[in-house]
Amino acid sequence: MSLALQMPAHRTWRRFTPGQRLARFAVYLAIVTAVVVSIQTIEVIPEFMLDAPEQMADLLKRMWPLAFAYYPKGVHEALVETLHIATLGTVMAVVMAFPVGLMAARNMTHSRIINTIAKLLLISSRSVNSLVWALLFVAVFGPGALAGTLAIAFRSVGFIGKLIGEAVEEANAGTIDALHATGAPWLSVLTKGYWPQIQPAFWSVVLFRWDINVRESAVLGLVGAGGIGMALDTSMNLFQWDRVAMVLVAIFAVVIVAEIAVTFIRKKIM
Amino acid sequence: MHEIARMLTAAPRVAFPPNWGVRVGWIALAAYVIYACSLLDFTWARFLVGLDNGARFIGRMFPPNFSRWEILLKGLTESVEIAVLASALGILVSLPIGLFAARNLMPFWVTWPSRMLIAVCRSFHPVIVGIVFVKALGFGALSGIAALTVASVGFIGKLFAEAIEEISLKQVEALRATGASFMNTITFGVLPQVFGRFMGFATYQLDSNLRNSTMVGIVGAGGIGGALFAAFQRFDYDFVCAMLLSIIVLIFLGEVLATQVRAIFLERSTLDAGKE
Fold first, then answer.
1. pTM for the full model?
2. Can you give the residue range of the structural domain that contains B159?
3. CATH code: domain of residue B201
4. Of B37, B215, B251, the CB nearest to A127
5. DSSP letters of A25-78?
6. ipTM
7. CA distance B141 to chain A (A)
8. Do the beta carbons of residue A251 and residue A123 sit within 8 Å?
9. Domain of A128?
10. Does B140 fall in a domain?
11. Each residue of A98-124: pLDDT tens digit?
12. Phi first, then psi: what are they for A48, rounded to 5°?
């Protein structure tokens, strides 16, 4: 029998199995349903939409020209404070994230209970928005940069800790076994075995988080946690839109500079 | 023989020589931390006072008070609706913008403005964008949707553009060779290559929008944030606790859902299964 006879005359090629197609279809259906239901039930006041162009034009007119005179008086110091909040918050987060991250790594800590507790800590840190952390710390420590720094630190612990834990879990076991075989103590295994392996991931995570933190620390002032958000809040409450515009431009400039700096450092150390 | 003799007489090699550059780096970091702490007025006394406050604060938060569950539920529903609509709109808008920003398919006079737009969208926190939209569109969910749409365009647009820049151009070339139109090249040559990753970004953004939609209410842009902030200012801490717990549960559910959806669309799991 020749091979050609065994082949069916026509065969339909499909990229995905029926199960995959069904799952994908279910997702699409769920998306469409969610969007339709949301559009139907959400409370939107149509009158507000009608005068939106006028309001926008009014806003832009009030924003222009920028209040450059306000920069040395009220913006510069707040901007520097924002950068300190972001940086100090990241440093604090790293200090807290290291032990928790190591506890969450299964090849480092051989205890399911400790792993789970550490993972829970990391998840709860990430689930609370930095603005909520800021509200909590403002209630505890009063308004000011301390609350902001702690908010940034507590929000970042989950992020940095999770990624440190994952990097440690991916570390090559050969090096670690070799160090253990020489009788190296626990700390030496950590600093000479794991650290060189997780270092690239670590620096990239820290830089990435710092970049995010610069953006986030700019809003914390809205709830009283220090930084440039305070200047923004004051100007906004007084409807001084030219000052608001000045603050927004300052935030934009700092964020762009931070991103360029992070990209540059990453290229250098990778 | 000389080799061995020299090795025996030479000073013992240090396995891990001290790296002075790194040490100076640590010292500089420590100096910065001390300087910044003094600048921001962090003192031990303040910390102790805070701990005292904190204990009272936590005492007033528990037990959480769910008696005003109607306000809670209304706020949460509005937050979810804002997140869903903002993600849908954001995806629709970022598809063309991401495509225009891909440097391997578009000339520079198209990519440059698209990239600028994405950079502006990414630079501001959704809550700040919310302030501007509350002025333009008034208080309420609409401003929240607009603010989160801007954030979604910034995030998905950037990653989508990067994903398109990494595709294999062979398929695109093959399609062009058959005389396919521009839209056909995009639909059959580009999209299939990036679709799985795109769904990944989209679910990630939905997750992130859900988190932020609970916050934009702080500036009056709808969702549960408004009620949360108001309760904070009234020192109504047991209700705050109830809202925070519900938000955490909601976000956790969102994360689980996003992981499920990503698993469905992650093609590597099926394609690479044979290789490993």
1. 0.80
2. 76-268
3. 1.10.3720.10
4. B251
5. HHHHHHHHHHHHHHHHHS---HHHHHTHHHHHHHHHHHHPSP-TTHIIIIIHHH
6. 0.77
7. 6
8. no
9. 67-269
10. yes
11. 899 888 888 888 888 888 888 888 888
12. -65, -30
